[in-house]
Amino acid sequence: MKKEVKIGLAGIASLLILFFGINYLKGVNMFKPESYYYVEFTNINGLATSSPVFANGLKVGLVRDIQYNYQKPGHVVVGIEMDQAMRIPKGSRAELVTEMLGTVKMNMLLNHEGQEYYNPGDTLVGEANEGIMGAAEKDLLPKLTQMMPKMDSILSSLNTLLADPALAKTLHNAEQLTASLNATSRQLHTLMSNDIPQLTGNVTAITEDLKVISGNLKNVNYAATFTKIDSTLQNVRLLTDKLNRKDNSLGLLLNDPELYNNLNATSANAASLLKDLQEHPKRYVHFSLFGKKDK
């Protein structure tokens, strides 16, 4: 008997542990006093038992039971357990919100201005909030449906464009252009790194030389220089006038044709004399060891 009692007690303990463990995993605290309320909806949007109940973003309860109201067709009654310290003012309502992942949660929209409160076991008014998913289904899906034919046309045009051999040639040309631009960029980098600094140095040196030349020009007496130039030009003009007149030797030489002809004849005679001297030197030079004269 003792062994059977022990086995029975162990089985009962296992069942209790399993019961409390399952409720704990569901979020039900068996040792915390709670108040029970009912909320009536026309559509629960897939709300499940053990779903949390929030108030101002804080979890204050849990969905414990969902039943269809057969006495009032089209309505569903949801039983919720609330913290015993949670008091719900009259005029408050419950709202179902569908989240992005499709889960449904219940929010208590409390009437903080109310002075009277619901008693445990009372029924609250519930409403469904379509949320983001509902709004997307209502507004976005019709637009997507309208856009589908246009998307098909765009995809067809895109496939035609991708199948065009000209696109491959264009991409090949773009690749070659990119390679050329890379080469140009490297050359420009080399130019900017080597040639430009050298050119800048040369320009700086030229600028310094120009500064020196400018300083030297600044010290030049331009009035005296121009006076000397005028005097030189005047002398050149006088020399030119003298050369144009016949009252001087250079003028006669340049302007008298007779003098020119005489000089030319003299030059011709001198040339003839030199030629004859070269051909018959004995006519002009007499030399003998014994004093004999050649005629």
Question: What keywords describe this structure?
Answer:
rod-shaped, membrane, 17% strand, single chain, 7-stranded mixed β-barrel, MlaD_Phospholipid_Transporter, 295 residues, transmembrane
Describe this structure in words.
This protein is of the alpha/beta class. Among the domains are: 1-31; 32-135; 165-220. Helix content is 56%, strand content 17%. The chain is built from 6 helices and 7 strands, in the order αβββββββααααα. It has helices at residues 2-26, 131-163, 165-218, 222-244, 249-255, 257-279, and strands at residues 34-41, 52-55, 58-68, 76-83, 93-98, 104-109, 123-129. It has a 7-stranded mixed beta barrel with strand order 1-4-3-2-6-5-7. The chain is rod-shaped, with a radius of gyration of 62 Å. Keywords: Membrane, Transmembrane, Transmembrane helix. InterPro entries: Mce/MlaD, MlaD_Phospholipid_Transporter. The chain crosses the membrane at residues 7-25. Residues 35-100 form the Mce/MlaD domain. This is Mce/MlaD domain-containing protein.
